[in-house]
Write a structure and sequence with these properties.
Blueprint lengths: L3 H6 L7 E2 L2 E2 L1 E2 L10 H14 L9 H21 L7 E4 L2 H16 L5 E5 L8 H10 L2 E5 L9 H6 L5 E7 L11 H10 L4 E4 L3 H4 L4 H4 L3 E5 L10 E5 L1 H4 L12 E4 L4 E3 L13 H17 L1 H19 L5 E4 L8 E6 L5 H10 L2 E2 L1 E3 L4 H7 L4 E5 L6 H18 L1
Parallel strand pairs: 3-15, 5-6, 5-7, 7-8, 8-9
Antiparallel strand pairs: 1-2, 4-10, 9-10, 11-12, 13-14, 14-17, 16-17
Helix pairs in contact: 2-11, 3-11, 4-5, 12-15, 13-15
Amino acid sequence: MYDVTQIRAEFPILAQKVNGRALVYLDNGASAQKPRAVIDAMTRFYEEDYANVHRGLHHLSTVATEAYEGVRGKIARFLNAPSEEHIVFTTGSTEGINLVSYAWAAPRLEAGDEIVLSVMEHHANIVPWHFLRERQGVVLKWVEPEADGALDPARVLEAIGPRTKLVAVTHMSNVLGTLVDVAAITRGAHEKGVPVLVDGSQAAVHMPVDVAAIGCDFYAITGHKLYGPSGSGALYIRPERMAEMRPFLGGGDMIDTVTREAVSYAKPPMRFEAGTPGIVQQVGLGVAIDYLTGLGMANIEAHEQSLRAYAEERFRGLNWLNIQGNAPKKGAIFSMTLDGPAHAHDLSTILDKRGIAVRAGSHCAMPLMQWLGVSATARASFGLYNTREEVDALVSGLELCHELLC
């Protein structure tokens, strides 16, 4: 049984008050809070088990290495990757996507080659490709969503031309909550010989993810949204693509031998992991994945979809509230504006006075803001510990915003 009251008790920060009111944390799309299990495990690791990994034969180094490397298998199982050898540790999705840009795309794309993107992408899945546009003359081809915020796979596939070398697309929009059929996009792109990168930053925390079923070539996740620590994450890479990639960063761990005249590199995935890593961060991510797996991703998805349905029901009574994006398949993410001159920052400030944490701004998605015709939105993004009572608190806060601003 999914007991949200018990789950909330496992997140210490949720017990605090903000401005004299119980905290209602609805900024999970930016970063999720951490359960006691993650906090305690990281503290214990620093107190009892910390040492550098891969480099020592002494007891602590062995213990630390086993704990650190054990996370690779947890991530592989979490994503249903064929092997942990397909998992590269990163500091998050941003580094993972930049890794693909530098290590795979840059050596093989030439001026005039194309990358297909959706307008819904986070800047982390835009700016690395702009680097290639600026430096190598690569062309970015943009696909717009439907009026309701859905992304039609057929439109993405229609954008693929003879010089398209990559499709880079989000699995779930961090602004609209739109769930993208990345499996259909991957199937169609592969039929045309084009690899697919999926930004899984939002989707992986809200639903089960199966990269084997999706069939994508790259899938990026970030730990801080998965109820783990910042500075942790991973990139799944198909073995065919791994074999095509050059090293990203140079230093310790990613080498085989170094001489004055030459260098040879370790086998993947170590080839793409240079220097002393975020050891404790990745251990914390492993504990967070254990926590999510224990709850069951399907159970988390069902809970959040119930919250989404309830929120939509409550929002229908607010005829002055504009929800940006209402795709049939979406997560419990709502980007909002009010009729009239009220700015998203005004909404966020007023809600904060009532202890309600939402995001305000462009959400690192400026092309999408331009497409929506707004400068900013206030975003409420729900997680596994949120409740219907918190939906009610949000609605009450929005009613106050309307009263004060409109």
